[in-house]
Specification:
By secondary structure, the protein is mostly helical. The protein is built from one helix and no strands.
């Protein structure tokens, strides 16, 4: 009895999956076929440029490791409990 219920549930899930796939192909068939053919939805010219960036962006320096955080900014964990 349990195996029959599992088989019916599996068949229902498989049918639902096929129904979703068919609906996707119906609504977006041209884009799917062009992607499968290798054309793609986006032209290669619109992609990112492989050339270097036009200007160098400097990285913000953090505080030295030995710098202490004032006690007013630290959470008061001792009083939390």
């Amino acid at each position: 009895m349990g195996q029959v219920a599992a088989a019916l549930l599996f068949a229902l899930a498989a049918g639902f999956g096929l129904m979703v796939i068919v609906a996707m192909v119906r609504s977006n068939g041209d884009a799917i076929l062009s992607a499968l053919a290798g054309d793609g939805a986006f032209p290669a010219a619109a992609g990112p440029s492989p050339s270097p960036a036009p200007q160098i962006v400097s990285v913000r320096r953090l505080a030295p490791r030995g710098a202490r955080v004032p006690s007013a900014l630290r959470p008061q964990l001792r009083r939390a409990a």
